[in-house]
Protein backbone atom coordinates (compact mmCIF):
# COMPACT_ATOMS: atom_id res chain seq x y z
CA UNK A 1 0.00 0.00 0.00
CA UNK A 2 1.33 3.41 -0.98
CA UNK A 3 1.45 5.74 2.02
CA UNK A 4 2.62 8.80 0.08
CA UNK A 5 0.29 11.79 0.50
CA UNK A 6 -2.43 11.75 -2.15
CA UNK A 7 -3.35 14.77 -4.26
CA UNK A 8 -6.66 14.65 -6.12
CA UNK A 9 -6.90 16.88 -9.16
CA UNK A 10 -10.23 18.22 -10.35
CA UNK A 11 -10.13 16.93 -13.93
CA UNK A 12 -12.70 18.90 -15.93
CA UNK A 13 -11.83 17.57 -19.36
CA UNK A 14 -9.99 20.79 -20.18
CA UNK A 15 -6.35 21.32 -20.94
CA UNK A 16 -5.54 23.29 -17.76
CA UNK A 17 -6.55 20.60 -15.28
CA UNK A 18 -4.92 17.93 -17.48
CA UNK A 19 -1.55 19.67 -17.39
CA UNK A 20 -1.95 20.29 -13.65
CA UNK A 21 -2.22 16.52 -13.08
CA UNK A 22 0.72 15.83 -15.39
CA UNK A 23 2.95 18.37 -13.63
CA UNK A 24 2.12 17.02 -10.19
CA UNK A 25 2.84 13.47 -11.29
CA UNK A 26 6.21 14.54 -12.71
CA UNK A 27 6.97 16.27 -9.39
CA UNK A 28 6.56 12.93 -7.60
CA UNK A 29 3.07 13.30 -6.15
CA UNK A 30 0.69 10.37 -5.94
CA UNK A 31 -2.09 11.67 -8.17
CA UNK A 32 -5.70 10.73 -8.81
CA UNK A 33 -8.41 12.61 -10.70
CA UNK A 34 -11.96 13.59 -9.85
CA UNK A 35 -14.54 14.57 -12.47
CA UNK A 36 -17.39 16.69 -11.12
CA UNK A 37 -20.79 16.84 -12.79
CA UNK A 38 -22.49 19.93 -11.43
CA UNK A 39 -25.42 20.47 -13.78
CA UNK A 40 -28.10 18.03 -14.91
CA UNK A 41 -28.73 18.21 -18.65
CA UNK A 42 -32.39 19.15 -19.00
CA UNK A 43 -32.67 19.37 -22.77
CA UNK A 44 -31.30 17.85 -25.95
CA UNK A 45 -29.63 20.99 -27.26
CA UNK A 46 -26.11 19.81 -26.50
CA UNK A 47 -25.20 22.91 -24.50
CA UNK A 48 -24.10 20.87 -21.50
CA UNK A 49 -21.19 18.71 -22.60
CA UNK A 50 -20.65 16.70 -19.42
CA UNK A 51 -20.26 13.36 -21.20
CA UNK A 52 -17.85 14.76 -23.79
CA UNK A 53 -15.87 16.45 -21.02
CA UNK A 54 -15.80 13.21 -19.03
CA UNK A 55 -14.45 11.38 -22.08
CA UNK A 56 -11.63 13.95 -22.33
CA UNK A 57 -10.90 13.58 -18.61
CA UNK A 58 -10.90 9.79 -19.02
CA UNK A 59 -8.32 10.04 -21.83
CA UNK A 60 -6.08 12.20 -19.64
CA UNK A 61 -6.36 9.78 -16.71
CA UNK A 62 -5.63 6.79 -18.94
CA UNK A 63 -2.61 8.54 -20.46
CA UNK A 64 -1.24 9.26 -16.99
CA UNK A 65 -2.21 5.85 -15.63
CA UNK A 66 -4.15 7.31 -12.71
CA UNK A 67 -7.53 6.56 -11.17
CA UNK A 68 -10.43 8.80 -12.18
CA UNK A 69 -13.28 9.20 -9.73
CA UNK A 70 -16.63 10.67 -10.71
CA UNK A 71 -19.11 12.55 -8.52
CA UNK A 72 -22.38 14.41 -9.05
CA UNK A 73 -22.69 17.72 -7.19
CA UNK A 74 -25.67 18.95 -9.23
CA UNK A 75 -28.00 19.21 -6.23
CA UNK A 76 -25.49 21.25 -4.25
CA UNK A 77 -24.77 23.46 -7.24
CA UNK A 78 -28.46 24.09 -7.79
CA UNK A 79 -29.09 24.95 -4.14
CA UNK A 80 -25.94 26.88 -3.25
CA UNK A 81 -25.12 28.59 -6.54
CA UNK A 82 -27.88 28.63 -9.12
CA UNK A 83 -30.88 29.35 -6.87
CA UNK A 84 -28.98 32.23 -5.26
CA UNK A 85 -28.16 33.63 -8.70
CA UNK A 86 -31.82 33.47 -9.73
CA UNK A 87 -32.78 35.47 -6.63
CA UNK A 88 -30.16 38.06 -7.52
CA UNK A 89 -31.35 38.35 -11.12
CA UNK A 90 -34.92 38.85 -9.91
CA UNK A 91 -33.69 41.65 -7.66
CA UNK A 92 -32.17 43.42 -10.67
CA UNK A 93 -28.58 42.50 -9.86
CA UNK A 94 -26.00 40.67 -12.00
CA UNK A 95 -24.44 37.85 -9.94
CA UNK A 96 -21.27 35.95 -10.76
CA UNK A 97 -21.87 32.17 -10.55
CA UNK A 98 -18.18 31.36 -11.07
CA UNK A 99 -17.27 32.97 -7.74
CA UNK A 100 -20.02 31.11 -5.90
CA UNK A 101 -19.10 27.85 -7.62
CA UNK A 102 -15.50 28.12 -6.45
CA UNK A 103 -16.59 29.02 -2.93
CA UNK A 104 -19.22 26.32 -2.46
CA UNK A 105 -18.47 23.54 -4.96
CA UNK A 106 -14.87 23.43 -6.21
CA UNK A 107 -13.30 24.31 -2.87
CA UNK A 108 -15.86 22.92 -0.44
CA UNK A 109 -17.87 20.00 -1.81
CA UNK A 110 -14.85 18.87 -3.85
CA UNK A 111 -12.44 19.24 -0.93
CA UNK A 112 -14.75 17.30 1.40
CA UNK A 113 -15.20 14.50 -1.15
CA UNK A 114 -11.47 14.34 -1.88
CA UNK A 115 -10.72 13.96 1.81
CA UNK A 116 -13.19 11.09 2.02
CA UNK A 117 -11.16 9.48 -0.77
CA UNK A 118 -8.02 9.86 1.33
CA UNK A 119 -6.54 13.00 -0.20
CA UNK A 120 -4.14 15.26 1.68
CA UNK A 121 -4.08 17.82 -1.12
CA UNK A 122 -6.41 18.97 -3.86
CA UNK A 123 -5.39 20.70 -7.09
CA UNK A 124 -7.16 22.55 -9.88
CA UNK A 125 -6.23 24.14 -13.17
CA UNK A 126 -6.81 27.69 -11.98
CA UNK A 127 -4.29 30.35 -12.94
CA UNK A 128 -3.41 31.55 -9.45
CA UNK A 129 -0.85 30.90 -6.75
CA UNK A 130 -0.89 30.22 -3.02
CA UNK A 131 1.94 30.83 -0.58
CA UNK A 132 2.52 30.70 3.16
CA UNK A 133 1.94 28.12 5.89
CA UNK A 134 -1.41 26.71 6.98
CA UNK A 135 -3.46 29.42 8.65
CA UNK A 136 -1.50 32.16 6.90
CA UNK A 137 -2.07 31.29 3.27
CA UNK A 138 -1.94 34.10 0.71
CA UNK A 139 -3.68 34.05 -2.66
CA UNK A 140 -1.25 35.49 -5.20
CA UNK A 141 -1.58 36.51 -8.81
CA UNK A 142 -0.65 34.11 -11.62
CA UNK A 143 2.39 34.86 -13.75
CA UNK A 144 0.13 35.07 -16.83
CA UNK A 145 -1.69 38.32 -16.09
CA UNK A 146 -4.11 37.75 -18.96
CA UNK A 147 -5.26 34.45 -17.43
CA UNK A 148 -4.99 35.29 -13.72
CA UNK A 149 -8.12 33.95 -11.99
CA UNK A 150 -7.72 35.33 -8.48
CA UNK A 151 -10.79 37.50 -9.17
CA UNK A 152 -12.89 34.32 -9.10
CA UNK A 153 -11.17 32.94 -5.99
CA UNK A 154 -11.31 35.86 -3.56
CA UNK A 155 -14.08 34.28 -1.43
CA UNK A 156 -11.93 31.29 -0.40
CA UNK A 157 -10.96 31.12 3.27
CA UNK A 158 -7.93 29.69 5.05
CA UNK A 159 -9.49 26.24 5.47
CA UNK A 160 -10.16 26.04 1.74
CA UNK A 161 -6.71 27.27 0.72
CA UNK A 162 -4.86 25.04 3.21
CA UNK A 163 -4.96 21.87 1.02
CA UNK A 164 -4.92 23.71 -2.32
CA UNK A 165 -2.22 23.42 -4.98
CA UNK A 166 -2.28 25.54 -8.15
CA UNK A 167 0.29 23.96 -10.49
CA UNK A 168 -0.19 26.56 -13.26
CA UNK A 169 0.79 29.57 -11.16
CA UNK A 170 3.98 30.27 -13.10
CA UNK A 171 2.88 29.18 -16.59
CA UNK A 172 1.34 30.96 -19.57
CA UNK A 173 -1.60 29.48 -21.43
CA UNK A 174 0.57 28.98 -24.52
CA UNK A 175 3.07 26.96 -22.50
CA UNK A 176 0.27 24.87 -20.96
CA UNK A 177 -0.92 23.87 -24.44
CA UNK A 178 2.64 22.97 -25.43
CA UNK A 179 2.98 20.75 -22.37
CA UNK A 180 -0.39 19.11 -23.06
CA UNK A 181 0.76 18.23 -26.57
CA UNK A 182 4.05 16.93 -25.19
CA UNK A 183 2.17 14.76 -22.69
CA UNK A 184 0.02 13.24 -25.43
CA UNK A 185 -3.31 14.68 -24.34
CA UNK A 186 -5.93 14.73 -27.08
CA UNK A 187 -7.41 17.92 -25.63
CA UNK A 188 -4.22 19.99 -26.04
CA UNK A 189 -5.96 22.35 -28.47
CA UNK A 190 -9.43 22.21 -26.91
CA UNK A 191 -10.99 25.71 -26.80
CA UNK A 192 -11.32 27.39 -23.43
CA UNK A 193 -14.72 26.97 -21.82
CA UNK A 194 -16.95 30.04 -21.74
CA UNK A 195 -20.50 30.81 -20.68
CA UNK A 196 -22.17 30.15 -17.35
CA UNK A 197 -20.12 28.05 -14.93
CA UNK A 198 -20.85 24.33 -15.56
CA UNK A 199 -23.91 25.20 -17.68
CA UNK A 200 -22.08 26.16 -20.85
CA UNK A 201 -22.64 28.49 -23.74
CA UNK A 202 -26.30 29.32 -24.26
CA UNK A 203 -28.55 32.12 -25.38
CA UNK A 204 -28.56 33.78 -21.98
CA UNK A 205 -31.98 35.41 -22.22
CA UNK A 206 -33.63 32.22 -23.47
CA UNK A 207 -31.95 30.13 -20.76
CA UNK A 208 -32.81 32.52 -17.95
CA UNK A 209 -36.35 32.78 -19.30
CA UNK A 210 -36.89 29.13 -18.35
CA UNK A 211 -36.67 30.16 -14.70
CA UNK A 212 -37.70 33.83 -14.57
CA UNK A 213 -40.94 35.07 -16.12
CA UNK A 214 -40.80 37.94 -18.60
CA UNK A 215 -41.90 41.27 -17.12
CA UNK A 216 -41.90 43.86 -19.94
CA UNK A 217 -41.59 47.55 -19.20
CA UNK A 218 -40.42 50.80 -20.80
CA UNK A 219 -36.92 51.55 -22.06
CA UNK A 220 -36.30 55.17 -21.09
CA UNK A 221 -33.45 57.62 -21.73
CA UNK A 222 -31.72 59.38 -18.86
CA UNK A 223 -33.74 62.46 -19.90
CA UNK A 224 -37.02 60.55 -19.49
CA UNK A 225 -37.94 59.84 -23.12
CA UNK A 226 -39.54 56.44 -23.73
CA UNK A 227 -37.88 54.62 -26.63
CA UNK A 228 -39.23 51.08 -26.54
CA UNK A 229 -39.97 48.07 -24.36
CA UNK A 230 -37.67 45.69 -22.51
CA UNK A 231 -38.34 42.02 -21.79
CA UNK A 232 -37.72 42.17 -18.05
CA UNK A 233 -35.03 43.88 -15.99
CA UNK A 234 -33.56 40.52 -14.95
CA UNK A 235 -32.36 39.96 -18.51
CA UNK A 236 -30.16 43.09 -18.71
CA UNK A 237 -26.98 44.31 -17.06
CA UNK A 238 -25.26 47.67 -16.68
CA UNK A 239 -23.14 48.47 -19.72
CA UNK A 240 -25.04 46.10 -22.02
CA UNK A 241 -25.31 47.11 -25.67
CA UNK A 242 -26.72 44.11 -27.51
CA UNK A 243 -30.36 43.16 -27.42
CA UNK A 244 -31.83 46.65 -26.94
CA UNK A 245 -33.17 46.96 -30.52
CA UNK A 246 -32.85 50.75 -30.50
CA UNK A 247 -30.87 51.35 -33.67
CA UNK A 248 -31.76 53.96 -36.30
CA UNK A 249 -33.99 56.14 -34.16
CA UNK A 250 -35.00 59.59 -35.40
CA UNK A 251 -33.96 62.65 -33.34
CA UNK A 252 -30.96 60.80 -31.94
CA UNK A 253 -27.35 60.44 -33.06
CA UNK A 254 -26.05 57.22 -34.51
CA UNK A 255 -24.10 56.36 -31.34
CA UNK A 256 -24.98 52.97 -29.85
CA UNK A 257 -27.26 52.73 -26.81
CA UNK A 258 -26.15 51.21 -23.51
CA UNK A 259 -27.93 50.19 -20.33
CA UNK A 260 -26.94 52.66 -17.60
CA UNK A 261 -29.38 51.78 -14.82
CA UNK A 262 -32.42 49.75 -13.76
CA UNK A 263 -35.31 51.40 -11.95
CA UNK A 264 -36.89 48.47 -10.14
CA UNK A 265 -39.80 50.41 -8.61
CA UNK A 266 -41.04 51.57 -12.01
CA UNK A 267 -39.77 48.55 -13.96
CA UNK A 268 -37.86 50.94 -16.23
CA UNK A 269 -34.64 50.20 -18.10
CA UNK A 270 -32.56 53.38 -18.33
CA UNK A 271 -30.34 53.83 -21.38
CA UNK A 272 -27.95 56.41 -22.82
CA UNK A 273 -25.90 56.82 -25.98
CA UNK A 274 -22.14 56.48 -26.10
CA UNK A 275 -19.69 54.00 -24.66
CA UNK A 276 -18.44 56.47 -22.05
CA UNK A 277 -21.63 58.40 -21.30
CA UNK A 278 -21.34 60.06 -17.84
CA UNK A 279 -24.27 57.97 -16.58
CA UNK A 280 -22.14 54.86 -17.13
CA UNK A 281 -19.23 56.22 -15.10
CA UNK A 282 -18.78 56.01 -11.34
CA UNK A 283 -16.30 57.60 -8.96
CA UNK A 284 -16.64 54.71 -6.52
CA UNK A 285 -18.92 52.10 -5.00
CA UNK A 286 -20.24 50.58 -1.79
CA UNK A 287 -20.08 46.81 -1.28
CA UNK A 288 -21.16 44.31 1.35
CA UNK A 289 -20.76 40.56 1.99
CA UNK A 290 -17.00 40.95 2.23
CA UNK A 291 -14.70 37.94 2.32
CA UNK A 292 -11.08 38.32 3.35
CA UNK A 293 -8.53 35.64 2.52
CA UNK A 294 -6.69 36.24 5.80
CA UNK A 295 -9.92 35.76 7.77
CA UNK A 296 -10.12 39.41 8.85
CA UNK A 297 -10.16 42.74 6.99
CA UNK A 298 -6.95 44.68 6.44
CA UNK A 299 -6.31 47.86 8.37
CA UNK A 300 -8.33 50.55 6.66
CA UNK A 301 -8.61 53.15 5.30
CA UNK A 302 -5.95 51.99 2.89
CA UNK A 303 -4.64 52.53 -0.61
CA UNK A 304 -5.07 49.46 -2.79
CA UNK A 305 -5.85 48.30 -6.30
CA UNK A 306 -9.13 46.72 -7.34
CA UNK A 307 -10.73 44.78 -10.15
CA UNK A 308 -14.40 45.06 -11.05
CA UNK A 309 -14.28 42.18 -13.51
CA UNK A 310 -12.01 39.34 -14.62
CA UNK A 311 -9.04 40.44 -16.74
CA UNK A 312 -9.59 44.10 -15.97
CA UNK A 313 -6.27 45.83 -15.26
CA UNK A 314 -6.06 46.66 -11.58
CA UNK A 315 -7.30 50.17 -10.76
CA UNK A 316 -5.91 52.35 -7.99
CA UNK A 317 -8.44 53.02 -5.28
CA UNK A 318 -9.00 53.94 -1.63
CA UNK A 319 -10.78 51.47 0.67
CA UNK A 320 -12.70 52.78 3.70
CA UNK A 321 -14.94 50.93 6.17
CA UNK A 322 -18.51 52.22 6.44
CA UNK A 323 -20.31 52.37 9.82
CA UNK A 324 -22.77 49.60 8.84
CA UNK A 325 -20.09 46.98 8.18
CA UNK A 326 -19.91 47.61 4.48
CA UNK A 327 -16.87 49.09 2.75
CA UNK A 328 -16.59 52.03 0.39
CA UNK A 329 -14.19 52.03 -2.56
CA UNK A 330 -13.30 55.34 -4.21
CA UNK A 331 -11.41 55.12 -7.51
CA UNK A 332 -8.42 57.22 -8.48
CA UNK A 333 -10.03 57.45 -11.93
CA UNK A 334 -13.76 57.00 -12.69
CA UNK A 335 -14.73 53.50 -13.73
CA UNK A 336 -17.26 52.34 -16.32
CA UNK A 337 -20.25 50.04 -15.81
CA UNK A 338 -19.96 49.41 -12.08
CA UNK A 339 -22.62 46.74 -11.66
CA UNK A 340 -24.59 45.82 -8.50
CA UNK A 341 -24.34 42.09 -7.85
CA UNK A 342 -20.87 41.83 -9.33
CA UNK A 343 -17.75 41.71 -7.17
CA UNK A 344 -15.06 44.23 -6.38
CA UNK A 345 -11.82 42.41 -5.59
CA UNK A 346 -9.03 44.08 -3.60
CA UNK A 347 -5.27 43.64 -4.07
CA UNK A 348 -2.10 44.88 -2.49
CA UNK A 349 1.33 44.75 -4.10
CA UNK A 350 1.68 41.05 -3.30
CA UNK A 351 -1.67 39.30 -3.23
CA UNK A 352 -5.43 39.20 -3.55
CA UNK A 353 -6.77 40.30 -0.16
CA UNK A 354 -10.46 39.56 -0.69
CA UNK A 355 -13.54 41.27 -2.02
CA UNK A 356 -17.20 42.08 -1.67
CA UNK A 357 -20.46 42.28 -3.58
CA UNK A 358 -21.28 45.65 -5.12
CA UNK A 359 -24.52 47.16 -3.80
CA UNK A 360 -24.31 50.82 -4.86
CA UNK A 361 -22.52 53.00 -7.38
CA UNK A 362 -21.21 56.44 -6.47
CA UNK A 363 -22.09 58.78 -9.37
CA UNK A 364 -19.66 61.20 -10.93
CA UNK A 365 -21.38 64.37 -9.85
CA UNK A 366 -20.60 63.90 -6.16
CA UNK A 367 -17.28 65.34 -4.91
CA UNK A 368 -14.38 62.91 -5.19
CA UNK A 369 -12.88 62.87 -1.70
CA UNK A 370 -11.12 59.86 -0.23
CA UNK A 371 -13.67 57.66 1.44
CA UNK A 372 -16.27 60.40 1.79
CA UNK A 373 -19.57 60.61 -0.11
Automatic annotation (TrEMBL):
Cell compartments where the protein resides: Cytoplasm
InterPro entries membership: MnmA-like, MnmA-like_C, MnmA-like_central, MnmA-like_central_sf, Rossmann-like_a/b/a_fold
Source taxonomy: Bacteria, Pseudomonadati, Pseudomonadota, Gammaproteobacteria, Chromatiales
Top-level EC class as recorded in UniProt: transferase
Name of protein: tRNA-specific 2-thiouridylase MnmA
Domain tRNA-specific 2-thiouridylase MnmA-like central: 206-273
Function as written in the Swiss-Prot or TrEMBL entry: Catalyzes the 2-thiolation of uridine at the wobble position (U34) of tRNA, leading to the formation of s(2)U34.
Entry's family note: Belongs to the MnmA/TRMU family.
Keyword terms: ATP-binding, Cytoplasm, Disulfide bond, Nucleotide-binding, RNA-binding, Transferase, tRNA processing, tRNA-binding
Catalytic activity reported: S-sulfanyl-L-cysteinyl-[protein] + uridine(34) in tRNA + AH2 + ATP = 2-thiouridine(34) in tRNA + L-cysteinyl-[protein] + A + AMP + diphosphate + H(+)
Domain tRNA-specific 2-thiouridylase MnmA-like C-terminal: start-end pairs: 282-358
Organism this protein belongs to: Spiribacter pallidus
Annotated region described as Interaction with target base in tRNA, given as residue ranges: 96-98
